[in-house]
Write a structure and sequence with these properties.
single chain; 241 residues; alpha/beta; Rossmann fold; 3-stranded antiparallel beta sheet; 6 helices; 29% helix; 20% strand
């Protein structure tokens, strides 16, 4: 685990963008493409904007395939649909063609959407190991990541797949990568900032006795990959070291 802590969000986003560029170019050089899993919410918007503007010439975007680690159970034109945020922030500005973007089809029932997304990922990887080059993750103040929320059934999954989960406190279904699928990634980057995340950060990173039911981000331990945390001072403020 690599912890990177920043005094300003601007510097955090700059370094994270360069981190993504390095991984992308290495993947393209070695295998001809870069399989990139995006995270949703508001946290990555500035990062996506940077990649689509200041750093747009640093990656051969014709060789990048985009995926989503989770999705809300809303229609694709809904303002809270993760795919729509990414479409506006990075995909449309870079003119990414549709065949390079793997949206989760929320016009389907959640269970069907999860099954079809798993099939689409398997088809893209053509029978190879489902090891994404980079998965971006955020983390909520309840220590959830992707849609792995505390004390939900998906936390028990041992399957390398996309699954559904009912989040009782939100009274809704979500569609999400399981922890075993995330943990097959070659690289995982957490993007976390804000004082409201500090308590969750401390528990996830420093608890000796893990409680993954209460702090689901503790489940993220890649088999062969690397985890890097990009945090601001506020999010890291309760860490002992």
């Amino acid at each position: 685990m690599n912890l990177l802590i920043y005094k300003t969000q601007d510097k955090l986003f700059e370094d994270l963008a360069n981190y993504i560029i390095t991984i992308a170019n290495k993947a393209i050089e070695e295998q001809g493409c870069f399989n990139f899993v995006l995270t949703g919410g508001n946290s990555p918007k500035e990062l996506y904007h940077l990649l689509a503007t200041t750093y747009k010439d640093k990656i051969d975007w014709t060789k990048v395939f985009f995926f989503f680690g989770d999705e809300r159970n809303v229609m694709p034109d809904h303002e809270s649909y993760n795919g729509l945020m990414a479409k506006k922030a990075i995909l449309d500005p870079l003119n990414i063609p549709a065949n390079q973007i793997f949206y989760i089809d929320t016009t389907l029932a959640p269970e069907k959407a999860a099954i079809e997304y798993t099939k689409a990922i398997n088809k893209h990887f053509k029978g190879a190991d489902l090891a994404f080059d980079l998965i971006l993750l955020g983390m909520g103040d309840d220590a959830h990541t992707a849609s792995l929320f505390p004390e939900t059934t998906i936390l028990h999954s041992k399957e390398v797949e996309v699954d559904t989960v009912f989040v009782e406190k939100l009274s809704t279904y979500r569609i999400s990568f399981t922890a075993p699928l995330i943990n097959k990634a070659k690289n995982i980057a957490f993007l976390v900032f804000g004082e409201n995340k500090a308590n969750a950060v401390k528990h996830v990173i420093e608890d000796e006795k893990k409680n993954t039911q209460l702090y689901p981000s503790q489940l993220i331990k890649p088999i062969d990959g690397a985890v890097t945390w990009f945090m601001d001072d506020e999010a890291a403020s309760l860490l002992d070291s």
